[in-house]
Amino acid sequence: MALTGQIKIAPLAASFGAVVSGVKLSSIGNEDWRVIYQNWLLYGLLIFPEQHLTREQQINFAKRFGPLEFDLVAISNVRRDGSTRTDVAHDETLKILRGNMDWHADSTYMPVQAKGAVFSADVVPKTGGQTGFVDMRAAYDALDVETRERANTLSAYHSLHYSQSKVNPVASQATSEKTPGYGFHDGPVPLRPLVKIHPETGRKSLAIGRHAHNIPTMSETESEDFLQRLLDFSCQAPRTYFHDWKQGETVIWDNRCLLHCATPWDLSEPRIMWHTRLAGDPVSEAALQSG
């Protein structure tokens, strides 16, 4: 465990991630903030127990990382009247939640992908409902030389229409209107390299996930097979971590080098999480092109 002033940094038993204690995110000073940011770049995922942030405090903390893609969205199976959503086959919100149970990075289907996210647990189920993370830097480093060299030359298109169609073949604009923060980008489909260079650390990582498809130099079948093999290889220990949420916890992850996914829980139990998304830099997070 590393100590920096009153802040304690305890690395996870994985290739990335750390638990941070000895700090209150609602009232951090500039020195503590610099420590947090440096360790965020180093570990990719930081977990802050017992924060119990208000909505305003979460937004203010997130703004320290830069502009926001959006300030606050509830990721939840709870309706406004307090009842729970359980009809996966017909409920549009649950179809989005189901899609999020596949590995992905946020907003890669937009012209500018997200920088990262702040996520807080408000209400958690008794069991299940973990969030999984995978270190795509370590995945890239672990590739055999031939596959790594091949990946360095390739790009893939990214589309939420594509990825969500695997869950909901009749997804429409009406779906996105019912799920704020998850708009279906209807502009040109972004093309992104399979290997991303982190703009602040210089480390390379695999930039794949459920939104990635249709590598231009391959047939549809070959592309899907290659991307799936990369994903299956990446999502193995010690490159994965599944977080068991406790009420009041806050995490922040670096969307430029990690993938994440939700996991199932008993939908008769409420689960309410608050998601703030950090806007990407238009220079470093822009797609190669759109087509």
Mind explaining what this structure looks like?
- The structure is a single chain.
- This protein is 25% helix and 26% strand.
- With 291 residues, the chain is of the alpha+beta class.
- The chain has a single domain, classed as Double-stranded beta-helix (4-Layer Sandwich).
- The strands form 4 sheets. It has an 8-stranded mixed beta sheet with strand order 1-2-3-4-14-6-16-5, covered by helices on one side. It has a 4-stranded antiparallel beta sheet with strand order 12-8-9-17. The protein has a 3-stranded antiparallel beta sheet with strand order 13-7-15.
- The N and C termini lie far apart (47 Å).
Question: Summarize this, please?
Answer:
By secondary structure, the chain is an alpha+beta fold. It has helices at 30-43, 55-63, 92-99, 136-142, 145-151, 160-165, 173-178, 220-234, and strands at residues 2-4, 7-11, 18-21, 45-48, 68-76, 116-123, 131-135, 155-158, 190-193, 195-197, 204-206, 212-213, 240-243, 250-254, 258-262, 272-278, 289-290.
Biggest β-sheet: strands ordered side by side in the sheet: 1-2-3-4-14-6-16-5
- Biggest sheet character: 8 strands, mixed
Mean pLDDT: 93
Structural domain count? 1
Task: Give the helices and strands as they follow along the chain.
Answer: EEEHEHEHEEHHEHHEEEEHEEEEE
Query: What is the count of β-strands?
Result: 17
Shape: globular
- Identify the CATH homologous superfamily: Clavaminate synthase-like
